[in-house]
Amino acid sequence: MNRVRQFRKQQQLSQFELAKEIGVARQTISLIESDKYNPSLELCRKLATALKTDLNSLFWEESK
């Protein structure tokens, strides 16, 4: 499970706004948030940068 949705909402971004910022379709963000799409490392880095966090917090660390 990833925390893309959680971090996106903290940044007050819509799926469309986040997608536009990192250069993907809104549907891609939806699929990532629902764990139906495994993003490339490059896309993971773009997400982490756009959401002002790091890869570990976004994808691997357990919620605190």
From TrEMBL:
This is Helix-turn-helix transcriptional regulator. Pfam families: HTH_3 (PF01381). Residues 4-58 form the HTH cro/C1-type domain. It comes from Limosilactobacillus portuensis. SMART domains: HTH_XRE. It comes from the Bacteria. Keywords: DNA-binding.
